[in-house]
Design a protein that fits this description.
Layout lengths: L1 H6 L1 H6 L2 E4 L2 E3 L11 E4 L4 H23 L2 E8 L2 E7 L13 H13 L5 E6 H7 L4 H10 L5 E7 L2 E4 L13 E11 L8 E10 L2 H16 L2 H7 L3 E2 L9 E2 L1 H21 L2 E2 L5 E3 H7 L1 H5 L5 E4 L2 E5 L4 H8 L11 E5 L2 E3 L15 E11 L4 H19 L2 E7 L9 H18 L3 E4 L9 E7 L5 E10 L1 H5 L4 E2 L8 E2 L2 E10 H12 L12 E5 L5 H13 L4 E3 L6 H10 L4 E5 L1 H6 L1 E6 L10 E4 H14 L4
Parallel strand pairs: 13-17, 20-21, 27-28, 27-29
Antiparallel strand pairs: 1-2, 1-3, 4-5, 5-10, 6-7, 7-8, 9-10, 11-12, 14-16, 15-16, 17-19, 18-19, 19-26, 20-22, 22-23, 23-26, 24-25, 29-30, 30-31
Length: 625
């Protein structure tokens, strides 16, 4: 902090955290040796997380003072922070919106007090004594701190909590603070544990940013896919099958159109679609290594005295396909694509509309290739990603995550693979960042985040190299010039663009705010007859448009003409065709476009055939409007 003050007072006021030799460091903590120093303000993603981690302390103190009870787990998210609290037995109700204002008042009192964050190091024995009154903290300590070891804790006001830090200097560094929402949760995310109350908050270094964020949240609420899905009758959920969406006819139209869209891209890019079983003997998952990591989120069942499980991913099944017979290098790259149904037993408290479900499908693909083909296949995956996201109007960011400490395989293989990924990214031409040490243990990966209409980052696509599965399944191919029977291991590229189709529909619903582009729209045309005398003609128009492959309805209800037109506009039909006696005589329709304001007051009259031709051209172009 002294260094920041020496540079300028404004910098000292803005700085959130320091970075010493690449390690985050409390700005009040003395330097222990010479080295490189960075001073990060709130605009840095790392500083945001520090800022919100510190804000969570303030929220925890407010919750403890307001509710009593016991503080449990805390954490930061992409936008904000949360604290889990076990409510006291004397309180019969959970957290509600009426608690938000008192919590904010207590938080602001702590902020005004400028309570310092004090970094302490304590032994496990001392920690267990310190938190002996809180069974949740003692269980966390037992799970996180080994016998004889020490851990870092921070004290701020009345709250002491286990935290590796760093934190801001004092609570006065937090300028604008708000409680956002609440929900139920389970301790450690396990439904067999105690039920807790989770309180979410957000904070910023100035009130203008908080106001902007709250406006964004209001806009997001208007676009919430759950609300639009209900209003447009796209999908619903039922407790008889929690976490599994029921797609109604209009929702299924969107679902199937997305899959057909990706199938068309597969044809262009040389993918072969396969179909694999939904259920496998658990021996498969043990062989693949997924059992050790995923068994708790797999649906398991006994069949003929053996244990089976519904598949949570497709890759082991594709490995069985590749290993079915001897393979030659001439067959590579081999690109398997699979829309198979996947199941993951997500905690009930984590389920959230279409964004977190238990039953879903992915545009999942696995490319089996030689090491020399990695670069070209990655280029192909990136170009496919660009084509697909371009149709939706998404921009995206790329990060290359490289070898972690717990990697498997040979360093030379990793180095060559990472070099090929870097070359592919450079050749692709988009800006990308290096994310050192964050690759999967089985191979480096490219992390892709898209940016939606509200500027929110969403991760859907994945491109990952895998050196592990080919070893576990003993996959091999006859190498070039291998007359003596020499075989080599393929590399697997895991690749998805949409990711979960369910989650992508949620993102697209909010991205378009329910105003679906024509090619993806479940309601493309509404035919509105002026009087009962042309009902028969209106039905003929509907049949012609239906025969041409469009989703079309006709309104023969009792409402007035203007009311019918307004209803169709609110239902987000792309086109409204008004037909009267003149249109019947001419074999035409009077067309109003949802996305063309000039036609809303008075439509354009065209022949049915001309209109069908125009619709077909617009649909094939896959335009956004």
């Amino acid at each position: 902090m002294d260094i920041a003050c020496g540079i300028s007072k404004s910098l000292a006021k803005r700085v959130v955290v320091a970075k010493v030799d690449g390690q985050l460091w409390d700005v009040q903590r003395p330097l222990e040796s010479s080295g490189s120093l960075e001073l990060l303000d709130f605009e840095s993603d790392e500083a945001k997380q520090v800022y919100w981690r510190s804000s969570a302390f303030i929220l925890g103190e407010a919750c403890e003072q307001h509710f009593g009870g016991y503080l449990c787990e805390t954490g930061t998210q992409q936008d904000g922070f949360f604290y889990d609290i076990a409510m006291p037995e004397t309180r019969t109700s959970g957290v509600s919106q009426t608690d938000f204002a008192p919590l904010e008042a207590l938080a602001n009192r702590a902020i005004q007090a400028k309570q310092p964050f004090e970094r302490l190091v304590a032994t496990k024995e001392d920690l267990l004594r310190m938190f002996a009154h809180n069974k949740y903290k003692t269980r966390l300590i037992d799970g996180q701190v080994s016998e004889g070891d020490s851990a870092v804790v921070y004290r701020c006001g009345s709250v002491i909590d286990i935290s590796s830090g760093p934190n801001v200097p004092h609570t006065g560094s937090i300028t604008a603070f708000a409680v956002l929402k609440n929900s139920a949760s389970y301790f450690l995310g396990n439904s067999s544990n105690d039920s807790l109350q989770r309180v979410y908050g957000i904070s910023f270094p100035d009130k203008k940013k908080l106001a902007e964020h709250q406006e964004l949240l209001e806009a997001a609420a208007r676009r919430d896919h759950r609300r639009i899905g209900r209003e447009q009758e796209l999908f619903f959920f039922n407790q008889l099958s929690p976490g599994s969406a029921f797609f109604l006819p209009h929702g299924a139209r969107i679902y199937n159109t997305l899959i057909s869209f990706i199938r068309g891209k597969y044809w262009e890019h040389g993918f072969e679609e396969v179909v694999t079983p939904n259920m496998f003997n658990t021996e498969l998952w043990k062989q693949s290594g997924h059992w050790q990591k995923y068994q708790d989120v797999m649906f398991k069942l006994d069949v003929d005295k053996e244990q089976f499980a519904l598949k949570p991913m497709n890759c082991p099944g594709h490995c069985l396909m590749f290993g079915l017979r001897d393979r030659s290098y001439r067959e590579l790259p081999l690109r398997f694509a699979d829309f198979g149904v996947l199941h993951r037993n997500e905690a009930s408290g984590a389920l959230s509309g279409l964004t977190r479900v238990r039953r879903f499908q992915q545009d999942d693909a696995h490319i089996f290739c030689m090491q020399s083909q990695v670069k070209s296949e990655i280029m192909g995956a990136l170009n496919l990603l660009k084509e697909v996201y371009g149709v939706f109007g998404f921009t995206f960011k790329l990060k290359l995550s490289t070898r972690p400490e717990n990697y498997i395989g040979e360093i030379g293989v990793w180095d060559r693979a990472e070099q090929q990924l870097q070359e592919a990214l450079d050749e692709f031409g988009a800006v990308w960042e290096l994310n050192p040490g964050d690759g999967a243990f089985y191979g480096p990966k490219i992390d892709i985040t898209i940016c939606d209409a509200l500027g929110r980052d969403q991760q859907c696509a994945t491109i990952q190299l895998d050196f592990q599965l080919p070893e576990r399944f003993q996959l091999q191919f006859r190498a070039p010039g291998a007359d003596d029977g020499e075989f080599q291991r393929p590399v697997i590229i895991h690749r998805a663009i949409l990711g979960s189709v369910e989650r992508m529909i949620a993102i697209l619903t909010e991205h378009f705010a329910g105003k679906w582009p024509l090619w993806l729209s479940p309601r493309q045309v509404m035919v509105v007859p002026v009087t009962g005398a042309v009902y028969e003609y209106a039905e003929r128009v509907r049949q012609q448009l239906h025969a041409a492959g469009f989703y079309v309805d006709v309104d023969v209800g009792a409402d007035t003409l203007n009311k019918k037109i307004r209803n169709a506009e609110l239902a987000q039909y792309n086109f409204i065709c008004v037909v009267g006696a003149r249109e019947k005589d001419e074999g035409s329709v009077n067309v109003r476009s949802r996305d063309d304001a000039d036609t809303k007051a008075k439509g354009q009259t065209v022949s049915i055939d001309a209109f069908i031709g125009k619709l077909g051209a617009l649909k094939n172009k896959q335009l956004l409007a």
